Structure formats: structure tokens, C-alpha cells
Amino acid sequence: DSERMQMRDGVALIPVDGPIYRYADYFTAMSGGITTDQLAKDFQRALDDPAVRAVLFVFDSPGGEATGINELADVIYAARGTKPLGAYGEGYMASAAYWLASATGDIWVDDNALVGSIGTVMGVPDPAKRVSYRIDFVSRQSPKKRVDPTSEGGRAYLQSMVDDMTEVFIERVVRNRKMTRDQVLAIEGGMLVGQKAVDAGLADRLGSEEQAIQDLLARAKPLDARSHFYAALTQGAPA
Length: 239
Known about the structure:
Layout: E1 6-8, E2 11-17, E3 20-21, H1 26-31, E4 34-35, H2 36-48, E5 54-61, H3 69-78, E6 85-94, H4 96-104, E7 106-109, E8 114-116, H5 152-177, H6 181-186, E9 191-193, H7 195-200, E10 205-206, H8 209-219, H9 225-235
Parallel strand pairs: 2-5, 3-4, 5-6, 6-7, 6-8, 7-10
Antiparallel strand pairs: 1-2, 8-9
């Protein structure tokens, strides 16, 4: 069982705080981040639990690794309609974190939440500053296997790679948020605060986490007798 996911009045709260990684290791544990694998498990657990009437992802994350984000976001998007889904931005809801948030459906944000950063950043070593004790030979048939980022061709290749990755990001935001491509491009990868994020279409409304919970509950189906009994057992409520 996850120690991160919490229940409140039948709403599963899934925190997405800190950097997002693909796999867990010592560094992720020290940084206080979360993995897409753990988020996927928490989400599936919430969907499968008959006592969960709705799911709210609670974000305070600057984003993270691109690997695994598209797959998880598509899983969240495909679950729309099974139970009310939403996202609440209490701090940062940026980059990969926003990709996930956009897939949920409704988005609530705090007045001071920072939302957006739709884009891709890729860091590569500077060969002029890299200490190396070996000489690498790259096959003539595979010049792009080891690209020189200081050459014109190398820069163009790497730039096209991050541009292509961002195109996927933009397409998903357009789909998830029912925005136009021009609306997304107009933000230029920046972050918008609170009401400006709502005005731009990145979020639906300002509000608190409690408001988001109540709004989701208003749309949720009532528990049937079996689910009510299960909720009473698991949450300590009177049956």
C-alpha cells in the first residue's frame, strides 16, 4: 500500500511533489521526488478501490524526466469518465508535472501557483570541458551516435530532438485542455501565476484544495451499499 496516497471524504489525494523521475534510486529518495511508476500504482489503486469516489492529484512539482510521462498521462486521460478526476496546483505545476495535470480534466490552482513551462530542456556535456582518458571512435555509418554539440550539424540535430519532444507535449496539451495550438504556443514555454494561468486556458479556476475536493464530490456517483460498507471498514466510519 502507498503511504503517499490519502483519502478524504471518498476522494483519493495523490501528491505529486518534488522532481518526477522514471525509476526510484538513492538519489530520488534523497531529493524527495516521486516516480511515474509509483504514481501509476497509486492511480490504479484509486481506480480499483470501490470506496474511492473521485481522484485528485495535488501538485507542487517543477517537472522532471520526460521518460514515462507521456505513457502515464495517456493512462490518466483514458480513465476520464470512470471517476471524476482533477488536479490541484498548490505551488509549482510545471513542465512534466503540468503534462500529467492536463490529462486529468479539471484543474484548480492557488492564487500563487506557477503553471506551465510547456517545453523540453536537454543538457549535453561540453566536450571542451569534459575530462577524458580515452579516445572514442564512432562508426562512419552512425555519425549521430555521438554528436558534437559545438558543431553546427550537432546543434541542429540536438535542437530538432528537443523540438520533436516538445511537439508531442504541445499536442497532448491541445487534446487534454481543448486548446488551440496557437494558444499553447503563445505562452512560449513560460509559467503563469494563478489567474493568468486560468485566463490562458492552462487551468479552469482558482480555489483551494478543499474546494477542488468538494467540486469533485459534487460530480461523483454516490456509494452503493457494498462500497459504503467497504469504505466504513477501511476508513473507520460507521457502517
